[in-house]
Amino acid sequence: MATSVLLIDDHALFRKGVAQLIDADADLSVAAEASTGEEGIKLAHQLKPAVVLIDLNMKGMGGLDVLRALKRDGSTARCIMLTVSDEERDVVEALRCGADGYLLKDLEPEDLCARLKSAVRGNVVLDAGVANVLAQSFRAAPTPSTGLEELTDREREILEHIAGGRTNKEVGRALGISEGTVKVHMKHLLRKLNLRGRVEAAVWALERLPPREPR
Length: 215
Prior knowledge:
Order of helices and strands: EHEHEHEHEHEHHHHH
Low-confidence stretches: none
Distance between the termini: 35 Å
Structural class: alpha/beta
Radius of gyration: 18 Å
Helix content: 40-55%
Mean pLDDT: 87
């Protein structure tokens, strides 16, 4: 069954173009289109799509408010911002509000569907330019109060896998432990490193951990 995608964007021409691109992929289908945030929230509750693509800057209810509402109401959809803004404050705030991805509208068309499929598999998807903005943001931020020496060997292994873009399920399979055990270790290492979530942990690790040796 094709993965359902809800589009929320107040620019009709761009929205239609994205819809055509998605529908051309056999693994994806457009569940519905919404031109306002309020309409998008209503459709998300009714249709329960697997993915919601949200424009950041819309007339009336903005994309961040839509994102907050969906997360607050317990939506299980993977929520991805699709916008022209690569401003640090927008990127960071979207991720803090629970966005599962942040993509720019100048993304190559052939890359969009691949990113959506990756998000469905549990990955956080970031535009390359956005990842650079995020990394610079964390470089400028105060260094976390604790470091790698506080982590157990297992927690460090998990952090390395998270930095490689793996989901909890994939990490558990690689290490021979359950997904639930991975989540427990993640909770502990985030607390030790004074980090807010897996995206921040991945960026932190990429800057501080040596590259993983091939096995």
